[in-house]
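Hi U.,

Before I forget, here's the chain from the pilot set. I'm dumping it here mostly so it's searchable later in email.
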Amino acid sequence: MIKQKLNIKVFASRLGVSTATVSRAFGTKGRISEKTRRMIISKAENFGYRANYHARNLISRKSQNVAFFYPPLIKGEPDYFITEIMFGVSGASSHNSYPLQIHPIYPESMEFCKDMILNGSISGIIVTAGTPESSGLVKTAKNNGIPYVVIGHMSGERQYTVTFDNSRGTMLAGKYFKDTGKKNPAYIGGLFDRRKRIGFSEGLGLHAGRILFDNGGSTFHDGFSSFERVIKSAPDTDSVLCANDILAMGFIKAALSKGYKIPGDIAVIGFDDIKVARYFSPALTTVRLHLDELGEKSVNLLKRIMNGEKMISGESVDCELIVRDSA
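Structure:
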């Protein structure tokens, strides 16, 4: 037999207090002594009572729900970049007791996503930049006074953003190749990587004119396929920077299958430092973006906005080159 859920009326009756007192104990408004609050919370643990936050939200017309929207840019394989940001968002949301919703943004789902933002069930949103749909959701939130934070670079958005410096990361990779004597570099491109290309050229200095640019893609298969194109176009290639770690792993797999030594024949650097990069063989040298920190900072910035802070400026997450076995 299923035990009936303990509601606020029964719980208050057992404690000999009013339902309003119970509500105040679990809320942030209304006068109640600290002694009474602690007693009620302690008894709630003993009786297994949980406050009905959804009912409270309906009454107050406010919610603490946060929604994370992201554009699914990779087809056929997991998007490790988004996944690791999501871990940070999820952890910080849980720490702040914010119920979290996660929604991919497709062109055909835009009306649904807008309805989610405007129906009163969400207090704030976090949007990963990258597509017109991402910009459209930010515009919807801005026009309707809904707190929002953008992860990444979005035209016209600076104040409520958490960004990462792609160009600095690839500059560090280019400088490393230059300092270790590499003279025939290649770049395996990804999605929205203009800043990465610029930074790589800056880091290589005088060798920048020798870069072979290949529009690789984003997946393991894309990286694997790019190896043949690079070696055919530039057989003397001795160093490769890939726009993400999965591309780098695919490239390395193809190179090893053809008898090339990594890093002896070709040094390879990835980008992002997803968790699996350190366990790949050879362990991947890569640019670490601190993806989980991106997620955490976005939630903490959104919290400040939701709490009404006015003097807010965008935040950024630093990057660093992590040297392992592949370069």
